[in-house]
């Protein structure tokens, strides 16, 4: 495996397994520091290995999670904004823009047009932690 492949494995471990993509302030610079490479080298690695930019990767994982949550009947008590926050978007505007770019529709319309019957997606123990945390502040 070439050196960049090693980085890809580590990037996947951090972003996906560690769910860092859900942290709104987890930047490419932070990832580069964790990998002990420069931000410009990380940018090249990501472009070579994934064929897209860091932000596109992160948004892709967030949108994938948002779509699952929007289809989950147990998440119906939570607003679309709550779901955007839960998956890592800082605000409604960035969530809606990324969602529309990826799906061609808004999260609200996606939820309305999708049969919310899927289960086992919401975290157990009641309210998702990110939403509980935000409501305390």
Could you explain how this protein is built, in words?
The protein is 64% helix and 0% strand. It has 8 helices and no strands. It has helices at residues 3-17, 28-35, 39-50, 54-71, 80-87, 92-103, 107-113, 129-136. α1 (3-17) packs across α3 and α2 (28-35) crosses α3 (39-50). Residues 119-127 and 129-137 have low confidence and may be disordered.
Radius of gyration of CA atoms, rounded to a whole number: 16 Å
- What does the average pLDDT come to? 85
**Share of helical residues:** 55-70%
Provide the structure class: mainly alpha
Helix and strand sequence: HHHHHHHH
Percent of residues in beta strands: under 5%
User: What is the number of helices?
Assistant: 8
- pLDDT under 50 segments (min length 5)? 119-127, 129-137
Please give the largest β-sheet: none
Please count the beta strands (DSSP E, at least 2 residues each). 0
What would the principal axes of the Cα set say about the shape?
A: elongated
**Whole-Å distance between the termini?**
46 Å
Fold topology:
Blueprint: H1 3-17, H2 28-35, H3 39-50, H4 54-71, H5 80-87, H6 92-103, H7 107-113, H8 129-136
Summarize the structure.
The chain has 137 residues and is mainly alpha-helical. The protein has helices at residues 3-17, 28-35, 39-50, 54-71, 80-87, 92-103, 107-113, 129-136.
């Amino acid at each position: 495996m070439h050196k960049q492949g090693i980085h890809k494995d580590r990037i996947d471990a951090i972003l996906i397994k560690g769910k860092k993509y859900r942290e709104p302030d987890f930047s490419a610079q932070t990832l580069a520091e964790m990998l002990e490479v420069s931000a410009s080298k990380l940018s090249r690695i990501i472009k070579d290995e994934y064929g897209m930019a860091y932000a596109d990767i992160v948004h892709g994982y967030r949108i994938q999670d948002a779509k699952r949550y929007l289809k989950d009947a147990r998440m119906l008590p939570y607003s679309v904004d709550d779901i955007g926050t839960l998956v890592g978007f800082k605000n409604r505007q960035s969530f809606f823009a990324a969602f529309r770019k990826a799906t061609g529709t808004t999260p609200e319309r996606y939820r309305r047009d999708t049969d919310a019957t899927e289960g086992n997606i919401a975290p157990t123990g009641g309210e998702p932690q990110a939403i509980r945390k935000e409501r305390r502040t």
